[in-house]
Specification:
Layout: H1 7-13, E1 53-57, E2 60-63, H2 64-74, H3 90-113, H4 120-131, H5 137-146, H6 151-171, H7 180-189, E3 195-196, E4 199-207, H8 215-233, H9 238-248, E5 259-264, H10 270-277, E6 288-290, E7 293-303, E8 306-307, H11 310-339, E9 343-345
Antiparallel strand pairs: 1-2, 1-9, 3-8, 4-5, 4-7, 6-7
């Protein structure tokens, strides 16, 4: 599970979630609690949290409200489907969310132990920024009423998020910086990772007749393909060809402007390689037919085998190395905090 750079940024995003799943740790009173229902497993409808406990961290109870809020952070696409999660993914999303809210609570408790503070000015600004996420004052008031019932409770939750963010920046972000010199040293020591096989970057427009097409259907598909070729030949660059692909192509690549990006020569059919070897970058092929489907190819680049230069990879390399360090530091912090904590998954 990836370390999130800013808990506060995630908090601000929560204003777009269903009211029942917003805001960080809505702590229930500690004490005797019953195990949580498995309401999020194998559900056929959107989860309906009710404040039931899902974990206890050093006596602090985390609820299914907290859990659902984190599940939406992990899989925001569910918001576009009335809050529903894919059945096959829901168990892993739930488990990942549970681990994250436990980790956040441990971090918050550690920030308190260290005596970390949030200035009044910073807290005031955060509250104002959070309030701006709502369309009108009534929405904000309804939210406050649902999530604790008072401005004071809201400020406490925002303060909690700021303290979590502050500790993570101190213990993870500040220690995970990768310098240009470190990235260059890694590049020099691992040349095989930066070798490029010969490849072709290209776009396609496809016209696909139906299965078991009749003679009339095949004739109609041929006509559509010929019309597509005329339009493709009239395009002048990547963008115009891509827009046309989005409009008329019938394969899955249409949603990516027909772009297959760079494909290794060894992974392409020999007939396709032969055609593209005879083309110049920017050139559009004639009408091609493979397996009953018609295709038009635009060659964007023929990339010879070789080494990527350090200048080509340094930004992504630094980013990947930094992310790896963040993951290692986060895992180490998680292990350290768990070592002296009493954590119960309910």
């Amino acid at each position: 599970m990836k370390y999130r750079l800013s808990i506060w940024v995630a908090l601000l995003a929560l204003a777009t979630l269903p009211v029942s799943g917003q805001m960080v740790a809505s702590h229930a009173p500690s004490g005797a609690v019953k195990p949580a229902d498995t309401m999020l497993a194998n559900t056929t409808s959107a989860p309906q949290p009710s404040g039931k406990p899902v974990a206890r961290v050093n006596g602090v109870v985390l609820t299914d409200n907290d859990l659902l809020r984190e599940m939406y952070n992990i899989f925001p696409y569910a918001r576009q489907h009335n809050g529903k999660f894919p059945q096959e993914l829901e168990p892993s999303i739930r488990q990942g969310a549970l681990k994250m809210i436990i980790f956040e609570e441990l971090v918050y408790q550690e920030a308190q132990r260290r005596g970390m503070t949030v200035s009044q000015a910073k807290l005031d600004k955060a509250v104002v920024d959070f309030r701006k996420q709502f369309k009108n004052p009534d929405d904000y008031k309804n939210y406050v009423k649902t999530e604790g019932g008072s401005e004071q409770a809201l400020r406490a939750k925002i303060r909690r998020s700021l303290l979590i963010d502050q500790l993570l920046r101190q213990d993870i972000q500040s220690k995970s910086v990768v310098t240009l010199a470190q990235a260059k040293a890694y590049y020099d020591k691992n040349p095989d990772q930066f070798r490029m096989p010969e490849s072709f970057a290209f776009q396609t427009i496809s016209v696909i007749p139906p299965d078991k097409a009749t003679a009339a259907q095949l004739k109609e598909a041929r006509k559509r393909a010929e019309d597509a070729l005329k339009q493709a030949k009239a395009t002048t660059n990547y963008e115009t060809f891509g827009v046309l692909a989005e409009k008329i192509s019938e394969d899955d690549y249409r949603v990516m402007m027909g772009d297959h990006r760079a494909v290794e020569r060894a992974k392409l059919p020999p007939d396709v390689v032969k055609i593209m070897l005879a083309m110049q970058p920017g050139q559009v092929s004639d009408l091609l037919q493979f397996g009953g489907a018609y295709q038009i190819i635009r060659l964007n680049a023929h990339i010879p085998a070789g080494m990527k230069t350090f200048d080509q990879v340094r930004d992504s390399l630094q980013q990947n190395m930094q992310q790896q360090k963040q993951e290692q530091l986060r895992a180490s912090l998680d292990k350290k905090l768990h070592a002296n904590a009493k954590v119960e998954e309910l």
